[in-house]
Amino acid sequence: MSLNLKNLKKIFKSDGVENIAVDNFNLDIKEGQLVTFLGPSGCGKTTTLRMVSGFENPSAGNIILDEKDITNDPPNKRDISMMFQSYALFPHMNVRENIEFGLKLKKFSKKRIKEKADKIIELTGLSGMEKRRPDQISGGQQQRVALARSLVMEPKVLLFDEPLSNLDAKLRESMRLEIRRIQKELNITSIYVTHDQIEAMSISDLIVIMDKGKIMQIGSPYEIYSKPQNKFVADFIGNVNFLEGKISYIGEDYIKVFNKELNEEFIGYSDKELKKDDEVYIVLRPEGINTKKENRENYISGIIDKYVFLGSNIELDIRLKNGKLLHVNEYNIIEKELPVIGKNLEVYFSKKNSWIIKK
Ligand SMILES: Nc1ncnc2c1ncn2[C@@H]1O[C@H](COP(=O)(O)OP(=O)(O)OP(=O)(O)O)[C@@H](O)[C@H]1O
């Protein structure tokens, strides 16, 4: 089931003041894809999800499910299920009754209800717990019941609104992989809202990065991380350094950027049409910088300001000539010795780790 969101817009009005919560939102989701909405609090993730589910009416735009315009259909006519962060199971019903509840409302035969529930109970790893009530199972198991309850209805689209935020870190990690496994197995088109960038990176086919109601970038986790299209996206995902500069030369497969403060020229690359004298940022991930001389395409030096020894790697900050800090993730522990604070350190990075975006 493909899902297309076209020019979606949502304006909330309160006390005569208009607040544009979602603006010009365009997204095409292919059948079976899991798409994550990621962005800071208040950027419009939940509002967009609620428009898809039908709980919120768009101020403009269209929602197309399998080529049919469902923008004005009520929630119960959409074949879309939503799994919330507070999973609100019926406390007086056991696991099986919770899972079968929606099917009973839809008046399936007893046999069909049992068949469907059995399949989903097995798929979500709840076998053996059917007779227990929600207060007799763990938080993770309750989450599975909530998932099972959504899945058993065989919706065309499944929406997740921060489903794992009530769970501890370890459980979240295993549950998100579980959700991804089941989602893939059933090939169910899904939208997943989260604050957690690791969660988004680990389960998504596509990530939509949002800010102030607008889409900042849509891409695979790899594209979002390695080829951010603007400073917001680069900064939002992972740790990053920005080196400012002006384009001094455009070669066939490389670009030279001159940084005035450091009086250095760096080489990098971009997939955009850039021209000489454009003001740009070089996006430099800490793990793309190290002390290995084979990456010598670019080098930069500074004074070791501080470091954190993490066993398998060392994170260090070096203070550059312009007073700014450069974050370096040095996996290859420097000559098997700990860094010395105050000592000068020369670090290197390749063209491939030097991604250029327009200012
Ligand atoms: N019912 C409402 N009435 C007025 N404003 C609203 C309403 N619901 C949301 N908003 C506003 O719309 C904007 C987007 O809110 P939304 O809940 O979609 O953000 P979010 O990205 O899901 O945030 P969070 O990560 O904190 O859940 C915010 O400015 C919010 O205050």
TrEMBL record:
GO molecular function, one term: ATP binding
GO annotations of cellular component type: ATP-binding cassette (ABC) transporter complex
Positions of the ABC transporter domain: 3-237
SMART domains: AAA (SM00382)
Keywords per UniProt: ATP-binding, Nucleotide-binding, Transport
The organism's place on the tree of life at top rank: Bacteria
One Pfam family named in its UniProt record: TOBE_2
InterPro entries for this protein: AAA+_ATPase, ABC_SmlMolc_Importer, ABC_transporter-like_ATP-bd, ABC_transporter-like_CS, Mo/tungstate-bd_C_term_dom, P-loop_NTPase, Transp-assoc_OB_typ2
Protein name: Iron(III) transport system ATP-binding protein
